[in-house]
Amino acid sequence: MGTKRIVFIGAAGEMCRLAIERFAVADGDWELALYDIRPDLLEQLVQRLPSGLATAARLDLYDREGLRAAIEGAALVVLGAGPYNRTAGPVMEACLQAKVPYLDFDDDIESTLHALSLHEDARAAGIPMYIGCGASPGFTNVLVADAAAELDRVDNIDVYWVVGDERGAVGRAVLDHMLRVAAGPCMTWENGGPVLHQSWAETRWTELGAGLGLTMVHETAHPEPVTLPRKYPDAKNIRCFGGLDPAGYNGMIRGVGLAVQTGKIPVEKAIDHLEALMLNKSGSVTGWRYALSGLRNLVRTREATRGEVLGFLAKAAVGHTFPHRSALKVEVTGLRNGLPAVVERRTPVSGPGTYLFTDMAAATGTACAAFMVVALDDESVSRAGVFTPEEWAEPERFYKALERVGTPRDEIFAISH
Known about the structure:
Rossmann fold
């Protein structure tokens, strides 16, 4: 069949760079075309890859002619540039016009809904468009499908994610996303239908792996409760809960997020403040006012004690980086052989010395690379439309793809009943 040309847009982003590096581990006759508005940031990446595998060039994804030329004839176009509520539309439209397959790791509800609205357009174009192919959504959706397959009837689906200290590795698009999931409307699935909640308002404690143990998490605006009802329309409740580790970060992001939501601080100024903190700089006085308000709220809700908050602030003030701990977990309840049953899947390890959950970029990039492997292996399958992971990525094939891109099997998930 010849060499397959794979196009990456936004290739210099941390998560996309990891996806490229991990994808390159898999065996295949690939030609990687890396595009970014900052191509100079790609030089070291190209040098690290096998000789002749990749080329790098400049591309502004809002340049319609340049975008069309870049993706022409691609076997797959991977969008790694965020925030997706601004970038996905132009790239998806270009892929529809050029009739080339598309894949992303979109974690925004608004752009996910827009993508789903293009299903008939993608069918007419005769191409697959794979959305939400990261860690959460993405890996989580496959875990749900795997767990649900053990039940005769699915009643409730709960998705959990926790992200650890990401100092120095978080871009502005990620911070923009976090502000929106920490405050504002949260579309979810309750009592058999879609409803709106407020992000971060409801909390619960859950037992997580990867060294986290019993952890408080917050209901958050994420795509899983929007997409999973397509596969499980009879489920009563489908919800997503998230959090940051250590808990002090929850307070800071919630406090600043609420300030953005209520118009007290512009979103760009809020991102400036958080970006400064991630780079161990002081941030702004205004940003700290709202961050401290969020930290005080942690004590009120008993997510953390006053001593824990003060200890967090003291360590953060001197640039202390907390040991990275992150995890994914899904819990599916329903009936099996006529009896109530609960099936869980959760990731077992994270942090230094691991491959899949070293940090958020590793988790998202590795999952994206595995989804790419499955998608490219499926080229002979006649599939056209917009698809979320639970609809097309069979769990065992996805787990094997994770191994093909370098993941040790014992890092992928733990089973609990």
